[in-house]
Specification:
8-stranded mixed sheet, alpha+beta, 330 residues
């Protein structure tokens, strides 16, 4: 049996500039942090022939073409894997909540499949393969931060460079953060589940389409958000987390302008409530429309009490510094 795990993530700045439709012309920049909430994948060889899949549903099929789960289907096809296999996946947090679960699942699955074939991948190779599956083979209108941060782990800055041949060139490095700042971020960043699970596809498809059409408002919005990402990096590395919180607020204001589906009246109500009761700034994590609200608090206790009374469930977390990891190989 082989078991792998891959961390979920929170985006800290620059989100949206990691889509090829933007960075192929302008370069992208994203700050992201892996957290200790995980997607797990196990692989084993069953006693009988067949492909046995257990995730939010169960599939028992005989060929790759019959597999409904697109990421599993394309991964097995790409590797021309054997058709006597059982794959099970579990997650600490449901999908569709803005924490990058799809990218985490893909990296965990590929890590498991390559480990089964006794092949090792660098963190960058793993991230690139996951991007290839989701973006190139499946045509998803998504960015690359999820696959990269789940593979790399930690608090990381990613640059997505434009290239003449259209191929990506992603570089990354860990943020230079003191232990004190790290603890302050872990203690003062709070995640609250809105109760809304959503698919980000429609929002990202609209952004992708408008970016490809060189829509002036969309491109200028993403330029601004990218600049905020650089400012967030400076604030975090200098230990000024209050400034980071204020930049998050500015980011949220501009993020909402990208799409009417980015927020809704209930999310706006909760956001205003949080700002009045202990939050410096915050945003919806992920593409928008639901999932988790994240706030930087200057009064953690007040914010927790307030959001709990409003009916929102908090999910506590710490940062993960290992990235996608092989847990069991026997």
């Amino acid at each position: 049996m082989i078991i792998t795990r891959s961390p979920l993530r929170i985006s800290l700045g620059g989100g949206g500039t990691d889509l090829p439709s933007y960075y192929n012309n302008n370069d992208g920049f994203v700050l992201s942090a892996a957290i200790n909430k995980y997607v797990y994948v196990s692989i084993m060889k069953p006693f009988i022939k067949g492909i046995f899949l257990k995730y939010s549903k169960t599939e028992i099929v005989n060929t790759f073409d019959e597999i409904e789960h697109p990421i599993i289907r394309e991964s097995l096809r790409m590797l021309n894997f054997e058709t006597q296999i059982e794959i099970t996946t579990l997650a600490d947090i449901p999908s569709g909540t803005g924490l990058g679960s799809s990218g985490s699942f893909t990296t965990a699955l590929l890590k498991a499949l390559y480990s089964k074939n006794k092949r090792n991948l660098t963190k960058q190779e793993l991230a690139e393969l996951a991007c290839y599956i989701e973006i190139d083979r499946l045509g998803e209108p998504i960015g690359k931060q999820d696959q990269y941060i789940s593979s790399v782990g930690g608090l990381s800055a990613f640059k997505f460079h434009k290239t003449k041949d259209g191929k990506n060139n992603v570089t990354f490095n860990s943020l230079k953060v003191s232990n004190e700042t790290m603890l302050n971020l872990e203690n003062n960043l709070l995640l609250f589940f809105t109760g809304f699970s959503r698919s980000a596809s429609n929002i990202l498809m609209d952004q992708n389409k408008r970016s490809l059409e060189n829509d002036k408002d969309m491109i200028n919005n993403l330029h601004f958000v990218k600049d905020l990402g650089f400012k967030c990096k400076e604030a975090i590395e200098s230990g000024n987390i209050e400034l980071f919180g204020k930049l998050m607020n500015e980011h949220w204001v501009h993020k909402k302008k990208r799409s009417n589906g980015m927020s809704n009246s209930k999310i706006d109500e909760w956001y205003k409530l949080a700002i009045k009761n202990g939050a410096v700034g915050g945003k919806i994590v992920g593409a928008g429309g639901g999932g988790f609200l994240m706030f930087l608090a200057d009064n953690v206790s007040l914010l927790r009490r307030t959001m709990s009374k409003a009916g929102l469930q908090e999910v506590t977390f710490r940062f993960d510094f290992e990235g996608t990891k092989l847990l069991v190989n026997e």
